[in-house]
Design goal:
This protein has 431 residues and is mainly β. It contains 3 helices and 18 strands. It has an 18-stranded antiparallel barrel. β17 and β18 form a beta hairpin. The longest helix is centred in the first third of the chain and has 7 residues.
């Protein structure tokens, strides 16, 4: 149940910074391919992510269920002198005994990456991650709920995250990084007003330029600029009356930041990027909407601290802030739309080997999202998630594991808050 265990943890990849800075040239395993399979039982006390007390007639009803999760996967790692290629595919199928129809949820997750060093001074990285599923943590790159919703959504919802980066060293100390990222979202719920497609379908572009100064072997300082463009791609209308185009939420972003990486010693390291995000909305106040802000400035931060106190024991903490998409918009054409949320995310994780075979893991995250504009301006969603996992290595090919996952959304908006508890137990084979 890999997608369930993730539970939206930014700590799993140390946010977007880790995605950008991951070491694609790490040592390959003894054989280039790997086959895995996980079989688990689970109990989910709110698999619809519905509020505890919904209004009469609401299509969203709280349901609980026991079930079975099947998760086969395959990966390929090819390491050459200057080039590393990695391919990975995971399929996940969950069976819910509670359901009368459509008892199975299915998801797909495909990852591909390539790293090539032209010389000691120039390195190129390419990567792509394609996901189809229903859970918000699967549909968000980096694990945080940046999809714009904390809710499970029926259907074959698509998210693709791809990018390229060129790292250059002009001298032994001075270098640069040029990168492009593209994230695409397409939700199955479409063809009607105020659909999830209208609220969340989009293509995000992000270009990064930074200059890097290797002050010492342990310390890297940098200054950077990013340009982003969010293009709302749905043809559905935002409002129930069908008068407001989704593209009123199109956004240009300018990020200006400074930062650095520092290794305090062989165990403790830190990364930080801090600055400002300047957002402008080229289509504000179109389609009958009035009162929208056409620009705003918010703090931007992406920082993490990692402590590796032994080979198998690791702790991480981090913080992120910036603008996120939201599934909340206009209620009628007389109200300004909610454009997005100003989100602050704190996360932490610990992995600890209790014995050589028994491994424990604990993760937690809190995200405070403040709505920008519209009826709910300055109101908040507070999202909490945590999970605990124990795995026992029976032998080099087989392990048993069990765990618990908790999600809670406390919202200032009526009929939105919910709680969710999940337990799981099973075995995993790896060859």
């Amino acid at each position: 149940m890999k997608t369930l265990v993730t539970v939206g943890m930014a700590a799993a990849t140390v946010g977007s910074m880790a995605l950008q800075a991951q070491d694609l040239t790490a040592a390959a395993p003894s054989k280039p391919w790997n086959i895995s399979a996980t079989v688990q039982g689970f109990y989910d006390d709110n698999y619809t992510t519905a509020p505890a007390n919904t209004p009469v007639g609401s299509p969203l009803v709280k349901r609980s269920s026991w079930g079975t999760d099947l998760n086969p996967g395959v990966s390929l790692d090819l390491l050459r002198d200057l080039t590393t290629i990695r391919l990975k595919y995971d399929y996940d199928a969950r069976y819910y005994t509670d359901r009368v129809n459509n008892k199975w949820d299915q998801s797909h997750n495909v990852t591909a990456s390539l790293s090539h060093s032209f010389s000691e001074r120039y390195k190129l990285e390419l990567y792509d991650n394609f996901a189809v599923g229903q859970e918000p943590e699967l549909l968000s790159p980096g694990g945080t709920p940046a999809t714009g919703t904390y809710m499970r959504i029926n259907g074959s919802n698509i998210r693709n995250y791809a990018g390229a980066a060129l790292t250059s060293s002009f001298t032994e100390q001075l270098g640069s990084r040029i990168a492009y990222q593209n994230t695409f979202y397409e939700y199955d719920d479409k063809g009607h007003n105020a659909s999830y497609s209208a609220l969340l379908d989009r293509m995000e572009h992000l270009i990064t330029l930074d200059l890097r100064w290797q002050y010492t072997p342990a310390t890297l300082a940098l200054v950077g600029y990013q340009f982003g463009y969010t293009d709302q791609t749905s043809n559905d209308k935002l409002d129930v009356n069908g008068l407001v185009d989704a593209n009123v939420r199109n956004r240009y972003d300018h990020y200006i930041f400074i930062g650095g990486d520092h290794d305090f010693n062989t165990q403790l390291s830190a990364k930080a990027r801090v600055g400002a995000q300047i957002a402008t909305y080229p289509n504000a106040n179109k389609g009958g909407i009035t009162g929208m802000e056409d620009s705003r400035v918010v703090p931007y931060a992406d920082a993490a601290l990692q402590y590796k106190f032994s080979e198998r024991n690791l702790a991480q903490v981090g913080v992120k802030s910036g603008l996120n998409q939201t599934d909340v918009a206009v209620l009628s054409t007389t109200q300004a739309t909610t454009t997005d949320t100003s989100a602050l995310t704190l996360y932490a994780s610990v992995t600890y080997a209790l014995t050589p075979r028994l491994i424990s893991m604990a993760r937690a995250q809190w995200q405070m999202a403040t709505f920008d504009g519209g009826l709910y301006n300055n109101q908040q969603d507070n999202y909490y998630t945590a999970d605990l996992n124990l795995s026992y290595e029976i032998n080099r090919y087989l392990k048993a594991e069990a765990g618990y996952a908790y999600d809670r959304l406390d919202s200032d908006i009526a009929w939105r808050s919910y709680g969710r508890n999940r337990i799981y137990f099973g075995v995993s084979a790896n060859y």
